[in-house]
Design goal:
HD/PDEase_dom; three-stranded antiparallel β-sheet; HD-GYP domain-containing protein; 350 residues; HD_GYP_dom; binds fe (ii) ion; five-stranded antiparallel β-sheet; 3 domains; Molybdopterin biosynthesis moea protein, domain 2; alpha+beta
């Protein structure tokens, strides 16, 4: 299986993984042989790319830390939570559902500790906020496990990450999933979402102080340069410092109209360059060691111009995975092959 950006899809390519919307509904089934209409539909949904199955990559398994069905369950829970006022759902039942989904995600993360985070995520931009919240939760959970957080803190962290932007529904409901860039005035107004989310969770639910305050602090900076209260360093909850990095990472790598998206390697560079300023050094160190910037199944361009698919990542050597050349199916271990030392990866095709 390999990841193909929407712009490079061709009729006849076969889907390796199904495509779902935020409510878990299957839009296109696995094994669908793509038609021109399917490709137009995928682009219309704002999906950045999909996994396809072909001869050269059939044996490549794309495994993730959290099972696809658990992720799907998380996205649909988040969507329900954000739309509660419209649905009139009973609060207790909703809180139980959040706890259950968080537990499933944390269990998956704990049992796949050795697996590196596979960062190509299939999301549609019409439901951007829900997919983003789910991704941020998974990523925060992985960072939390790598930082050896006790399980209670881990549950609180993932809960806060899933719900961190819920205040947006209260501040500017029509702009929660806006597909255009916000005006400076709207951006300013939207900043109230951290406080609004905190107040909402505190008054309506009983997730506890750590969850509520982490939501309140998720836009604070390590040096006090963030908002709303300019807290810094240890004044910030550890969970908020982790959530901050996960949130920025997913926001910057996501493709959305009107906004530039960045390559994972560029975002890691950006985050590293702002260590001690915007981000907690310990969190950055963990992120740097544990996230693969070239996910298995993704296409890369090598410094000699050849295209290849990432087959395997080597922990601690994220820049030098094993790749399979598209031209002849030969594999190069960029970490171990002596005659490949001068070859680097120059681009990830996402
Ligand atoms: Fe936010």
């Amino acid at each position: 299986m390999r990841y193909v950006p929407a712009g490079q899809l061709q009729p006849g390519m076969v889907l390796g993984q199904g495509l779902h919307d935020a409510s878990g509904r299957m839009l296109l089934a696995p094994n669908t042989s793509l038609t021109n209409e399917n490709i137009t539909y995928i682009k219309f949904l704002g999906t950045a790319g999909v996994y396809i199955d072909d001869e050269i990559t059939r044996d490549i398994q794309v495994t993730d830390v959290v099972r696809p069905e658990v992720k799907s369950e998380a996205v649909s829970m988040i969507q329900q939570f954000f739309c509660r006022s419209a649905e009139n759902v009973e609060l207790d039942a909703e809180e139980r559902l959040v706890r259950l989904v968080v537990e499933n995600v944390v269990n998956d993360v704990l049992s796949n500790e050795a697996v590196m985070y596979n960062m190509v995520d299939i999301k549609t931009y019409n439901d951007y906020t829900y997919f983003h919240s789910m991704n941020t939760g998974v990523m925060a959970g992985i960072l939390g496990v790598k930082m050896e957080l006790p399980e209670d803190d881990l549950n609180d962290l993932v809960t806060a990450a899933f719900l961190h932007d819920v205040g947006k529904v209260l501040v500017l409901p029509d702009l929660v999933n806006a597909t255009r860039k916000l005006t400076p005035a709207e951006e300013e107004e939207m900043k109230k979402h951290a406080w609004a989310g905190y107040e909402y969770l505190r008054k309506e639910y009983s997730f506890g102080d750590q969850v509520n305050e982490t939501v309140y602090q998720h836009h604070e900076w390590y040096n006090g340069g963030g908002y709303p209260n300019h807290l810094k360093g240890r004044e910030l909850l550890r969970n908020a410092r982790i959530l901050k990095a996960a949130d920025v990472y997913d926001t910057m790598t996501s493709q959305r109209p009107g906004r530039k998206s960045y390559q994972p390697a560029e975002v890691i560079e950006y985050i590293m360059s702002r260590t001690g300023m915007e981000f907690d050094p310990k969190v950055v160190e963990t992120m740097n060691a544990g996230f693969c910037i070239y996910p298995v199944g993704s296409e890369v361009v090598l410094s000699d111009g050849r295209h290849a698919i990432v087959v395997e990542n080597h922990p601690g050597f994220v820049q030098r995975p094993t790749v399979r050349l598209l031209e002849d199916g030969k594999e190069i271990n960029l970490r171990g092959d002596r005659n490949a030392y001068n070859i680097t990866i120059v681009k990830l095709m996402i």
